[in-house]
Write a structure and sequence with these properties.
With about 90 residues, the chain is mostly helical. The protein contains 4 helices and no strands.
Length: about 90
């Protein structure tokens, strides 16, 4: 691993400690369609969706390289926030 990438990973670790950065990262990852079917029946649209997913996978790899626990913690945090928001709406 080169020095520049190691520095970048440190920046990712520092940034992901901030709530607003995690919210931004979650939003970006949700736009990437990581868990969606990428095949639309239209070649150009499928290529577009696969490109979005490719970016999302690159971001996930960056998070994984920075700290393997970042993404699982992000998933849990966002899941808990969704549950809290749903509970607040029903009260």
């Amino acid at each position: 691993m080169d020095k520049e990438y190691e520095v970048l990973l440190g920046f990712v670790q520092d940034a992901m400690r901030q709530r607003h950065v995690r919210d931004i990262m979650w939003h970006i990852l949700s736009l990437c369609g990581l868990y969606s079917d990428q095949f639309s029946g239209n070649r150009e649209h499928t290529d577009y969706l696969l490109g979005q997913r490719s970016i999302g996978l690159a971001i996930l790899q960056l998070l994984e390289d920075a700290d393997p626990s970042i993404y699982p913690r992000l998933l849990l945090e966002m899941n808990n926030l969704t549950k809290e928001e749903n509970n607040a709406r029903t009260e």
